[in-house]
Amino acid sequence: MRFVIVSGMSGAGKSTALNVLEDEDFYCVDNLPVALIRSFVQIASDGTASEFTKFAIGLDIRSAMKTEDLESAIRDLEKSGFQYELVFLDAADDVLLRRFKETRRIHPLSGKTGSIEDGVREERRRLNVLKSRADYVIDTSKLLTRELKTEIVRIFTEDRHFDSLFITVQSFGFKYGIPADSDLVADVRFLPNPYYVGELRPLTGKDQPIIDFVMEYEESRVFIKKYTDLLKFLIPHYIGEGKNQLVVSIGCTGGRHRSVCLAEAIAESLMEDGESGVRVWHRDIDKDPAHKK
Questions:
Q1: Is the pTM value of this prediction over 0.85?
Q2: What domains can be seen in the chain, in order of their start residue?
């Protein structure tokens, strides 16, 4: 039997995670009151629901308005020796605020003031006890819905190793500024620029002629290998320090040719390992008006 507790901040993707688990043949119950957890666990473990072998419950601030109740419920499971996995969905406060404003939802702890910001702050304080006990912490700040779904399937269906780190490899143009959220920045302006080849100028680093142009140079191939090796060395150390998001920024002049091509190649190389979630993003690929058709 597999028993999963899905928790996290309101707006961080808990409902999406539960929906994915339900699609993967988990019997799911959302917003289960903490007073009923013991009974539900008993039913799940004694064979009463024998047709099910995988269970998931949603446990969040709605399940218990007191932090002590949440902590007590988890402590009871631990004392009984019941085996469970806890996944905690999180996101940066500004992201949560934006999501609530865009959907016009009311935060469950906004209270009399109606302040989403106050609600997020109080919820984070109350749920810290669950986050500290989580087996998996997934930061959804930069994840698309489909990327979150992929991560949930990878952990709970494919049983792939989870290292709590999601990597974004993004291209950018120095003329538009270095991305503020960068953890690591690489400057690839040392490579020949296809911008100065007339027939290549309208294309992007995702087009084969640009890929052929950039990869023709040994410096490009050596850079990809050495930089990817550096990242693969650093990633386990970042994980060891508890980092759950890594943003790797690759920059050229306009963010349309060289950086796009190399970001794609580096992301592909990291994906081959299959240990961390990886996405590629091209911030400035469409910004240069000279290339607008």
A1: no
A2: 2-156 (3.40.50.300), 166-291 (no CATH)
